[in-house]
Write a structure and sequence with these properties.
- Chain B: It comes from Trichechus manatus latirostris.
- Chain B: Pfam families: CCDC84 (PF14968).
- Chain B: This is Centrosomal AT-AC splicing factor.
- The complex is a heterodimer of chains A (95) and B (346).
- Chain A is α+β, with helices and mostly antiparallel strands and 95 residues long.
- Chain A has a domain of 59 residues: 3-Layer(aba) Sandwich (Glutaredoxin).
- In chain A, 23% of the residues lie in helices and 19% in strands.
- A three-stranded mixed beta sheet of chain A has the order 3-4-6, covered by helices on one side. Chain A has a two-stranded antiparallel ribbon with strand order 2-5.
- Chain A is globular, with a radius of gyration of 13 Å.
- The termini of chain A are far apart.
- With 346 residues, chain B is mostly helical.
- Chain B has a domain of 129 residues.
- Chain B has nine helices and eight strands.
- A three-stranded antiparallel beta sheet of chain B has the order 3-7-6.
- The longest helix of chain B has 53 residues.
- Classes of the chains: A alpha+beta (95), B mainly alpha (346).
- At the A-B interface, helix 1 and strand 1 of A face helix 5, helix 6, helix 7 and strand 8 of B.
Chain lengths: 95, 346
């Protein structure tokens, strides 16, 4: 069973800075207190930037993360179709 | 034994009594003397060896007319074995970072030493005379090759120049498009709210389109339209300020996570989790004695404890298994019943 927490970025400055959250919404996944990385095809594997297109995408992603974590993996491959993953720019200071 | 292996001894050879003669072509020692070269085996070996060498020579001969010049690659250091001279010869001629294909081999084939060695080889191994010419390159051919080599070098240089010009044009294009993007980004930035820069779908789309095109300048016809379709229908991303505190690291730089950082208040004292050592020993004792009731007959019998009439070794049972109290219980029950029945009688 996955627990979902909605966190306000203004109230957690330490974590926002640690995870380098520049775009909201961003989703970070944990399993047993271990941060799970997922390869979405985007440059940042530490979090999912943007909103999910369908509920099923979200459910599939959680399942893949769970299965990988139960096998002891720390990074898994995202099952979401690349065209459903929001694109964003990793601009550095707007260059 | 015989120092020069290929030399046939002065003693006239008489059939099987002939001295050992090592044939390098068949890589075997034969005792047939000079007759060996006429044998079927030797001729077969000879044919195979020449067939192996022939294609390389033919390729080199083709290069006489049209010499090819290419950029140097370590593969061009390959060598080929010249059967007649019994030596390895550099196949291609390389100088600096250019290579002339088959140059080395041609040079060797045209040399007079090779001609002498070929004649010797043909004579000793009794090969077909007509084949000999195929493995030789005349000096005139070699001169022709040199001329075509010069021509090849010139055309190669011209080609290189063209390629460089093309690359320069491409780089200029990229620079230009990049500058365009910077300009377009700076303009909307000036218009936006200076506090939390939350981008509207329109300008974000534009920025995305322009930036994605700058990432791949060669394919400017990127299918950005279908990608952005979904973004339009969905909700746009909100951009928060960059989480860039120079001194402190973040996840990408491999800093320790905030939840793993040691708290300063509790760290001075020893943070022991779990029972202390004495508690652990007590638990162990309890485990040991858990199985044995303290009042049972046997070890740890306290002689000062009060005993009553029931304290007997056994209660007359014979086939008993199980605890003593079970037989005691049985005995007591029977004693009670007996008493009751006796009371009932009287």
């Amino acid at each position: 069973m996955a627990a979902i927490y909605l966190v306000d970025v203004d109230q957690t400055p330490v974590y926002t800075q640690y995870f380098d959250i520049s775009y909201i919404p961003s989703t970070v996944f944990f399993f047993n207190g271990q941060h799970m990385k997922v390869d979405y095809g985007s440059p940042d594997h530490t979090k999912f930037v943007g909103s999910f297109k369908t509920k099923q995408d979200f459910i599939d992603l959680i399942e893949v993360i769970y299965r990988g974590a139960m096998r002891g993996k720390l990074i898994v491959q995202s099952p979401i179709d690349p065209k459903n993953i929001p694109k964003y720019d990793l601009l550095y200071q707007d260059i | 034994m015989v120092s020069d292996r290929k030399e046939v001894s002065e003693i006239p050879s008489v059939g099987p009594m002939a001295p050992a003669h090592h044939c390098p072509l068949c890589r075997q020692t034969f005792f047939c003397g000079r007759g060996h070269v006429y044998s079927r085996k030797h001729q077969r070996q000879l044919k195979v060896a020449l067939e192996r060498l022939l294609p390389q020579v033919e390729a080199a001969r083709k290069a006489v007319r049209a010499a090819q010049v290419e950029r140097y690659v370590p593969e061009h250091d390959r060598r080929c074995w010249c059967l007649c001279c019994s030596c390895e010869v550099r196949k291609h001629l390389s100088h600096g970072n250019l290579t002339v294909l088959h140059g080395g081999l041609l040079e060797h084939l045209a040399s007079p030493e090779h001609k002498k060695a070929t004649n010797k080889f043909w004579w000793e191994n009794k090969a077909e005379v007509r084949m000999k010419d195929k493995f030789l390159i005349s000096p005139q051919d070699y001169a022709r090759f040199k001329k075509s080599m010069v021509r090849g070098l010139d055309s190669y240089e011209e080609k290189e120049d063209e390629v460089i010009k093309e690359m320069a044009a491409q780089i200029r294009e990229v620079e230009y498009s990049r500058q365009e993007m910077v300009r377009s980004v700076l303009e909307p930035q000036a218009v936006q709210d200076p506090e939390e820069g939350s981008s509207t779908p329109g300008s974000w789309k534009q920025r995305n389109r322009v930036s994605s095109s700058s990432q791949q300048p060669s394919d400017l016809d990127l299918p950005t339209a279908p990608e952005l379709d979904w973004m339009e229908t969905g909700q746009p991303l909100t951009f928060i300020d960059h989480q860039d505190i120079p001194g402190v690291g973040n996840i990408h730089s491999g800093a320790t996570p905030p939840w793993m950082v040691q708290d300063e208040e509790n760290s001075p004292g020893s943070q022991q989790i779990g029972p202390s050592y004495e508690e652990f020993l007590k638990e162990k004792e309890k485990e040991k004695l858990k199985k044995l009731p303290p009042d049972r007959v046997g070890a740890n019998f306290d002689h000062s404890s009060n005993t009553n009439a029931c304290w007997l070794p056994s209660f007359g049972r014979v086939w008993n298994n199980g605890r003593r109290w079970q037989s005691r219980h049985q005995f007591k029950t029977e004693a009670r019943n007996k008493q009751q029945s006796r009371k009932g009688k009287t």
